[in-house]
Amino acid sequence: MLHNIGSTCELLTAVRNGKEDKTKELLSYENFYNLPSWNQGQGIVLLREALARGHCEIAKLLLHKGARVNNKLGNPTNDPLHFAVGLTDNLEIIRLLLNEGAKINC
Predict the structure, then answer these.
(1) Any idea what DSSP says for residue 37?
(2) What does the pLDDT average to over 87-104?
């Protein structure tokens, strides 16, 4: 039996608020893959939320659960690396994305 993790808001809120333990708990349930916040771009929406708020450990959790480091949202340069570079000078996040295989010349 799959655990009911509630709505997409529960996971999105945990990511936005930097709640690492709650995010980890919600990502441990098998049915999180069915949530709209995950399905849209295979985790790209959640990953962008973590990046925008500087939540490196949560970004790492999302990437290790399968969020696509090179997926784009909208225009061709809107991948996580370009998004992070344009939004923050957080070198830890930029290194994380590069170490996870982000392409630098998309």
Answers:
(1) H
(2) 89
How much is the pTM? 0.81
DSSP class of residue 34 equals G
pLDDT of residue 28: 86
Q: Which fold has domain 8-99?
A: 1.25.40
CA distance 60 to 99: 11
What are the residue boundaries of the structural domains of the chain, listed by start? 8-99
Share of the chain above pLDDT 90, in %: 34
CA distance 50 to 88: 12
**Whether the predicted pLDDT of 37 surpasses 60:** no
- Number of alpha carbons in the 13 Å side-chain half-sphere of residue 50: 31
- Which residues, including other chains, have CB under 8 Å from residue 42's CB and lie 6 or more apart? 66, 67, 68, 71
